[in-house]
Amino acid sequence: MSITVDRVTLNGRTIAYSDSGPHTGTPVLLCHGLPGAHIQVPSHAVLHQHGVRMIIIDRPGFGYSDPHPNRTIDGWRHDALAVLDHLGIERVTLLPFSAGTPYALAVASKHPERVSRLHVVSGMGLTTRVDIEQMSWFNRVQHSFGHSTPAFVNDIVASISNVIIGKGPKAGRFGIWLMRNTFTPTENIYAKAPEGQNFRDMLAESFRQGYHSYLQDLGLITVDWGVDVSTITHPITCWYGDADRITPPSAGEKIRQYLPQTTMRVFPGVGHLLIFMHWDELIAHLANEAHA
């Protein structure tokens, strides 16, 4: 399946994105996970069937977007608005997946008029400074690995990984091997089967430029996000698999703790790849709510 990459420029920096589905459809901004990239569209046919226009933006250093050494979670909203303004889209449904959650919340918090609602899929739980301080020292270091490691160490690790593991498809295959004990048996089959091609392509595209931005992103999402969620009043639906070992349903309960308008939907026996393996159902649900 071919997905076209488009580009806009912001302050001299290239921002890459994909624009899939009917242009007259309900606009949805998918905030990709970690790893992730603009190519994460398992089925164009489903988008056209339900009238959904799917926008996916490569975060800095992922896919074809230029790196941004000093970027922040809050600052990514400017990338998002640059793309939406370029496309003439006034209001979107936000669809954050996994580590895309803080970036979506940053957009909703600072630009509520541009957002209709949020559908969080396998999303990270909200982690404030207080939550981090209440962790044991071991868990705190582990949780904040990317942030607590000096930048020059991350650069060394990334450079070595680029050579030893490799970029693009090689990195994708390594990621599948690395996550094999985290996935459910069904997901491990899916990740290597023909129907899992989109997932494999997404991993390869995510590491097109190597590991530097991956480690940078890890450092940003594992500390206080700096997002004032008290300003978010949009309806929120959280989708989780009860077999997810990366972001279990308890992460959604954490979101609901801070955003009580959140409703939960839990899929029995499903793991972290819910968005790939239940794409049809998810898009149908998004479309029905938009039309309602």
Describe the structure.
This protein has 292 residues and is an alpha/beta fold. The protein has helices at 44-50, 76-87, 101-110, 129-133, 137-143, 145-148, 151-164, 169-178, 185-192, 197-206, 212-221, 249-258, 274-277, 279-291, and strands at 5-10, 13-20, 26-31, 52-57, 92-96, 115-121, 236-241, 262-267. The chain has a single domain, classed as 3-Layer(aba) Sandwich (Rossmann fold). It has an 8-stranded mixed β-sheet with strand order 1-2-4-3-5-6-7-8, with helices on both faces. Strand 1 (5-10) and strand 2 (13-20) form a beta hairpin.
Brief characterization of the structure:
The protein is an alpha/beta fold. It has helices spanning 44-50, 76-87, 101-110, 129-133, 137-143, 145-148, 151-164, 169-178, 185-192, 197-206, 212-221, 249-258, 274-277, 279-291; strands at residues 5-10, 13-20, 26-31, 52-57, 92-96, 115-121, 236-241, 262-267.
What is the secondary structure topology, with strand pairs?
Blueprint lengths: L4 E6 L2 E8 L5 E6 L12 H7 L1 E6 L18 H12 L4 E5 L4 H10 L4 E7 L7 H5 L3 H7 L1 H4 L2 H14 L4 H10 L6 H8 L4 H10 L5 H10 L14 E6 L7 H10 L3 E6 L6 H4 L1 H13 L1
Helix pairs in contact: 8-10
Rounded radius of gyration (Å):
18 Å
How does the helix and strand content classify structurally? alpha/beta
Q: How many domains comprise the coordinates?
A: 1
Average pLDDT confidence is 91
Q: Tally the helices.
A: 14
Report the CATH topology name.
Rossmann fold
Q: Note the gap between the termini.
A: 31 Å
Content of β-strand: 15-25%
Uncertain regions spanning at least 5 consecutive residues: none
